[in-house]
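Annual report, structural modelling task.

Input specification for the pyridoxal-5'-phosphate complex:
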Amino acid sequence: MRAKTKLIHAGIVGDEATGAVSTPIYQVSTYKQQAVGQFKGYEYSRTGNPTRHALEILISDLEGGVAGFAFASGMAATSSIMMLFSKGDHVILTDDVYGGTYRVMTKVLNRFGIEATFVDTSDVSVVESAILENTKAIFLETPTNPLLKITDLEAISKLAKEKGLLTIVDNTFMTPYFQQPIALGADIVVHSATKYIGGHSDVVAGLVVVNSEQLAKDLHFIQNSVGAVLGPQDSWLLIRGIKTLGLRMEEHHMNAMRIAEFLNNHEAVGRVFYPGLADHPGHELMKKQTTGFGGMISFDVGSEVKADELLAKLRYFTLAESLGAVESLISVPARMTHASIPRERRLELGITDGLVRISVGIEDVEDLLEDLIQALS
Ligand SMILES: Cc1ncc(COP(=O)(O)O)c(C=O)c1O
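The model returned the following structure:
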């Protein structure tokens, strides 16, 4: 089955009982038992719900894994994965990982004794030298947010296997339509499904896919114990969003390509970060491990004042947190998504005050270009 067909026909399609072509929303918390312990697969909706289950099978099929799990947010998903580890365990993470992931590792999970080191995972030798006796996993984000750095998924997964570590990949920016980390050797894939998978700025959700029965058993135990599950209505919204994921991703990618080229040649713009540009350091690697470059672009306008001027003038780019929706969004990472990272650390990473990030939507690209031309003039 080809990618766009899979988005429509993978997972559980429709409803066997009625023939409904769309998965019903099972808005239910508990299920009648015939006798104690005798039930039809579901006993309580934290443990399992048919609509959530349909979504979980679908995302597992799309990522090529063994089992999928739906959580109440991307952070609930990441935090639940981290609960696979114990006090004294160590995890290596990408240095410009999503700000919320940095925060949960350094302000919450550290209090439970889970140690974290943040390194430039685009350099395999740097990752190798960060491995300690107690390291249990390598957590990657590629492309990164907001600097769009690229990590070699195959090389890092190979290294992790040699050392007996798990490879976990945050695949939010690419989605399974453009990148499938499990096929490249990863063990766990996590998504903020709030972004491209939902795609319409109307649901907050997280998804996880694992590549082994043991991980499936362990993560289901955590999902059920901790309970940060996704509700049936939101699960249904994601199933609906996924049907058009291919169309949307193609359009995001094509629009972003045009806009990145335009920004790259504009005199008021400094560095442009977009892996689709031939001069991007991760361009060739990206071509090897993905089938598209995505819709995220960051660029430097020089200062906080200039960034604010741009924001005030733009008409079609909504100033908002988040990304990956049909409408174009714009943000200033230093004061928004990455505000939880101390300024010194941000500057070290290259997240300057004038760095602007756009999530290119699926509007007509000519309108988006005209808007940028007037706002940058
Ligand atoms: C790459 C990435 N991972 C994880 C998250 C967290 O997801 P959520 O906001 O759904 O909790 C985000 C949110 O912006 C993100 O961009």
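The first strand starts at residue 67 and ends at 71.
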